[in-house]
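Let's practice the habit of predicting before peeking. Look at the sequence and jot down your guess about where helices and strands might fall. Then scroll down.
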Amino acid sequence: MKHELVCLENKWEEINKFIFYAAEHNLDNLSIPAQTTKNVSDIFDNSKFSAIVSYPIGSSEPQIKLHEVMLCTSRNIKKIDYTINIFDLENFNIRAILSELKSAYQICKDKKATLRPILEYKFLSYQDTITLINGMASLGIEEMIIGTSYSVDNYHDNMIVSRFIQDKFSINIISSAPILSQEQYDEFHKNQIFGLRIKSYKLLDNLCIK
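Done guessing? Here is the structure:
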């Protein structure tokens, strides 16, 4: 199982702690806000970073979000974590969602980068989830993030949805489930979830990473 760390800090002192923890423990990825990539892209290995666009609810205008994608890929960031607009999810505006993702995907493809949509799955019914993920798969999405870790989530529900999408659509899932214990972590490992995304390096230190 892959292990990712998310840094949402504003102070460079704290950001550096995340960066050096990720490097020291050889984590698979460190996600940082798009605006932060300007300061790290010339110093660290960009293959170990992803840029988070429009976190936490994805409500920025599509033109702004796509501009951030262009900026980050121009800095040679190879993974873009693209937050799907929660208001579009609530209203199941699938045309707008897929239109945005198609444009972002093309930008990433041209720059040989990977687009990873961030989906707050709780706003969708079972059937709506199938419809949306099927549309993403048709675009060429191969990896995505389930849960923003911004709103209340249930680790077990997240795990079920993650496993369902992996099995039905063969899309690699990075789960942002609220893992708080070794037992919960072990469940994700046992169920072969592709990756786990944690917001605290102190919590990662307390987990027995396999």
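How did you do? The chain has a mean pLDDT of 93.
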